[in-house]
TrEMBL record:
Keywords: Acyltransferase, Transferase. It comes from Faecalibacter bovis. It comes from the Bacteria. The lineage of its organism: Bacteria, Pseudomonadati, Bacteroidota, Flavobacteriia, Flavobacteriales. Pfam families: Acetyltransf_1. This is GNAT family N-acetyltransferase. Gene3D superfamilies: 3.40.630.30. InterPro entries: Acyl_CoA_acyltransferase (IPR016181), GNAT_dom (IPR000182), YpeA/RimI_acetyltransf (IPR050680). Residues 2-187 form the N-acetyltransferase domain.
Length: 188
């Protein structure tokens, strides 16, 4: 049985492991070293607490037969500065890192920060199901514009997003990677 649900703090360590599949290099840039254990600890701590980009509050879980298969994190782009502050504070206090990442989203969009699927569940249409859930829930029911970034080199993902109705609206850099900024506008 398939199910979408909001995450809880108890999901933090599993969600952190999932996020490493999709944002490992960015997290390594954040913490300043290529250490998976520290990166997972960093993400787990953020997921457990409220009011930050990676908080359980902004996380949805996709389950199959009561097992977590995937996750997505999304939030109001207008809140980026507020939601990013706890991330930057944790990096400064525990990792001695003072970084100034570029703004990956903007006001006027619900930003899809991350979608991640465990390898054993990939290739089964789960990514499309997660995106269809997001589109139905936020673009159709709430009339919101959805935004996301896709790496210049990930043309397969770009093609998937285009097939779902997303269009390139610009380019953004995040940490050391260049991305297409794509949006699905309400009513599209």
């Amino acid at each position: 049985m398939k199910n979408f649900r909001k995450a809880t703090p108890n999901d933090a360590s599993i969600v952190a492991q999932l996020l490493m599949f999709s944002m490992q290099e960015i997290v390594f840039d954040f913490i300043g070293e290529k250490n998976s254990e520290k990166a997972i600890e960093f993400l787990t701590e953020l997921i457990k607490i409220e009011n930050n980009q990676y908080s359980y509050e902004n996380t949805w879980i996709y389950e199959i037969d009561d097992k977590i298969a995937g996750t997505c994190i999304l939030y109001d782009g207008a809140l980026l500065e507020i939601l990013r502050k706890p991330v930057l504070d944790l990096l400064a206090s525990q990792y001695n890192r003072n970084i100034n990442p570029q703004d990956e989203t903007e006001s006027g969009e619900i930003y899809i920060d991350n979608v991640a699927i465990f390898p054993e569940y990939r290739g089964k249409g789960i990514g499309s199901e997660i995106f269809q859930f997001i589109i139905d829930e936020f673009a159709i029911k709430q009339g919101k514009t959805l935004g996301l970034l896709v790496d210049f080199n990930n043309l397969r993902a770009k093609k998937l997003y285009e097939s779902l109705g997303f269009k390139v609206v610009g380019e953004k850099q995040l940490m050391s990677e260049n991305h297409f900024h794509m949006q699905l506008k309400k009513g599209s």
